[in-house]
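Justification of computing resources. Each target in the renewal requires a structure prediction run like the one illustrated here; the chain below, 158 residues long, is used simply to show the kind of job we budget for.
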Amino acid sequence: MLSHIDKKGNAKIVDISSKEISSRIAKASGKIKISEDALKQINLNSLKKGDIYTVSKIAAIFAAKNTSNIIPLCHPVKIEDITITFNTNIEEKFIEAEAQVKSSDKTGVEMEALTAVSIALLTIYDMVKAVDKAMVIFDIKLISKTGGKSDYHSNDSI
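Resulting C-alpha cells:
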C-alpha cells in the first residue's frame, strides 16, 4: 500500500509519530539551458534585474523552508542548514543549481532539497526571461539522501 493513501484510497499524511529523530541530509540538482548572450550578461552581472545568483539563492532557501506549505502531504521539518551552489557550463550553455539540506528530525529533507533547486532555477528563468525566452529547465533530481531507514546515492555522475 502507498504511504500517502489510506485503506479507502483517500490521501493522508504519513504518521511519523513513532519514528526516532535522526540526522538527515539530502542533495538535489537541476539545470537550466541558457543562450550564450544571456550567459554573457549573467557573467558580467549586467542584467536589469540584478545578480541572479544571490536572488536565486535566497529564493531557494526560502522555498526549502516553506516546502510543507506548498506540497500538501509534506511534514514541516526543522532545517538546520541549507547550501545552494551554482555551476556555469559555458561550453554546453547551462547553469546547474545544487542544494544540500540538513536536518535532525523524524522525516527526510529530500523534498526540501528538490524544492530549493526547482525554485532556484525558476528564479533564474524569471530574472533572465527578458533576454532569453527559450530557456529550458531540466534534469531535476535527487543526488543523495542519508538518514532514516535507508540511504540513497544516485548512480549518475554530475
